[in-house]
UniProtKB/TrEMBL annotation:
Pfam families xref list: MFS_1
PROSITE patterns hit by this protein: MFS (PS50850)
Assigned keywords, A-Z: Cell membrane, Membrane, Transmembrane, Transmembrane helix, Transport
Organism: Actinoallomurus vinaceus
Main location: membrane
Mode of membrane association: Multi-pass membrane protein
TM spans (from-to): 23-47, 59-79, 91-110, 116-141, 153-172, 178-200, 212-232, 244-261, 282-306, 318-336, 343-364, 376-400, 412-435, 455-476
Domain Major facilitator superfamily (MFS) profile: 25-481
Full protein name: DHA2 family efflux MFS transporter permease subunit
């Protein structure tokens, strides 16, 4: 067993007993992240089987995904800050217990209501587990070179897990049945939990100080949950300008404004607004939102193109994205840290985003009689390379100004941005591609040709979103150095030309 030492400084995890135990802790943290990320996509390829078995309606089936997204996206920021205040280790472990238990309930579900409720609880556990991981990593690895390498491993798991989920979903659904896409979480979750108890160092939270910002917690959680719900249900089903969509969006905006006012005046704010003074934190989150919105098109539109246009089954679809995972692993684990160290975070980020934008643009050809080696493989390889280069740089940038007392908040913030960006990207790309497909069908195109035409437009928009992210990434500082290590004034940076 590895000894754990409790830190005497609030918000700061004690150093690991050895290099070996620190890297083992990273493996455990990434194992927890992989469990969450795979579950986010593993369901997609099993949806037709779930619908047949449990009798879901077409509209009800979407809630198998939406219930998870609403809880997950809505609670990430709150869970990350709770990690700072209570204990990141405790929040991580509690999240694992909740997620694993909910996975068992999902697998045992015999009707739509039980599955949707269990998926919501899964989202709660997923938010708790994933929100604090980056904060724990930057505390475990304070030395810049090691931190870049550790973040590269984390970024590979976080990005490649999506394609791994598609493959796992296809294999389990065809070889066994859809219940096993949830049952498989049990042994993995239990193993990760046991290792977490042994390997992760205990840490003390900052405490609640002058009081708990209950009102701020309620406002931000309600705003994020309602915002994600508005994106994944009314906006996607009825359109962005539908009265119901506009009503919910207005309420979301009011809640967000009320939250900002509350945080600016609270004695002990849940989210200190000083975090947004850093151009690195703000810039990284904006770029992340745009990049994820665009890159999500590879999985969403790519799966639809392969299955509905080229006629792939679930297993072949998963295998088609396997090169993405291989390329991401090679780039993230072997080259990302070297590139960041040798050049700069910004240069590495710009290179990765550009490659991803080119890959999405190539996918925009999407012919009706496409050939995998010519029309799909080059795109997924370029996108995989771009993600493998860009996402470690983005994670490093988002955490670059975070001190131990705010690391959980910064981690929760970048994860929230990722989930909201993915939800927005899904809604925008789905709406535009479906509407364009219907227009083409109305002009006499066949069903397959109309679908392919809709996906082409979606890929063009996805590429444009990533291109905008490239332009914004140019504005982030090239290098920075801290002027103060005081946790009350940590975001002053001195830029170098």
């Amino acid at each position: 067993m590895y000894d754990t030492v409790e830190s005497t400084e609030p918000g700061l995890a004690a150093p690991a007993a050895s290099d070996r135990s620190r890297w083992l802790a990273l493996v455990v943290l990434c194992g927890g992240m992989l469990l969450i990320v795979i579950d986010a996509t593993v369901v997609n390829v099993a949806l037709p089987a779930i619908q047949r078995d449990l009798g879901f309606s077409s509209s009800g089936l979407a809630w198998v995904v939406n219930a998870y997204l609403i809880a997950f996206g809505g609670l990430l920021l709150l869970a990350g800050r709770l990690g700072d205040l209570v204990s990141r280790r405790r929040v991580f472990i509690t999240g694992l217990v909740v997620f694993t238990t909910a996975s068992l309930a999902c697998g045992l579900a015999q009707g739509p209501a039980m599955l949707i409720a269990a998926r919501f609880v899964q989202g709660v556990g997923g938010a708790m587990t994933s929100s604090v991981i980056l904060g724990m990593i930057v505390t475990l690895f304070p030395e810049p070179r090691e931190q870049a390498k550790a973040i590269g491993v984390y970024s590979f798991v976080a990005s490649a897990g999506g394609s791994a989920g598609l493959l796992a979903g296809g294999l389990l659904t065809q070889a066994l049945n859809w219940h096993w896409i949830f049952f498989i979480n049990l042994p993995v979750g239990v193993a990760t939990l046991v290792l977490s108890l042994r390997v992760l160092d205990r840490d003390k939270g900052l405490g609640f100080g002058a009081g708990t910002d209950v009102l701020g917690a309620v406002l931000i959680t309600a705003a994020l949950m309602l915002g994600v719900y508005t994106i994944v249900d009314p906006a996607a089903a009825r359109g962005w300008t539908a009265p119901r969509t506009l009503e919910l969006a207005s309420v979301t905006l009011v809640l967000l404004i009320a939250f900002v006012v509350r945080e600016a005046t609270a004695r002990s704010p849940l989210v200190p607004l000083r975090i947004f003074r850093s151009r690195n934190v703000t810039g990284a989150n904006v770029v992340q939102a745009l990049a994820v919105s665009g890159m999500f098109g590879m999985f969403f539109l790519g799966v639809l193109y392969l299955q509905r246009v080229l006629g792939y089954d679930a297993l072949r679809t998963g295998l088609a994205f396997l090169p993405t995972t291989v390329v991401m692993a090679t780039v993230s684990l072997r080259f990302a840290e070297r590139l960041i160290t040798a050049f700069s975070v910004r240069a590495t980020l710009l290179s990765g985003l550009t490659l991803a934008a080119v890959g999405l643009a190539l996918f925009a050809r999407a012919p009706v009689n496409g050939v995998y080696l010519v029309d799909v493989l080059p795109s997924v390889v370029l996108i995989g390379t771009g993600v493998g280069v860009a996402f470690p740089a983005l994670a490093a940038l988002a955490m670059s100004d975070a001190t131990p007392s705010d690391a959980g908040l910064a981690s929760g913030l970048i994860n929230t941005t990722t989930q909201v960006g993915a939800a927005v990207g899904l809604a925008v790309l789905a709406t535009l591609s479906a509407a364009h497909g219907r227009t083409l069908a109305g002009h006499g195109a066949s069903a397959v040709a109309a679908a392919a035409g809709g996906y082409r437009l979606g890929f063009v928009v996805a590429a444009a979103l990533v291109a905008i992210a490239v332009l914004i990434a140019v504005t982030v500082p090239h290098r920075m150095e801290r002027r103060s290590s005081d946790s009350k004034d940590i975001f002053g940076i001195e830029e170098r030309p």
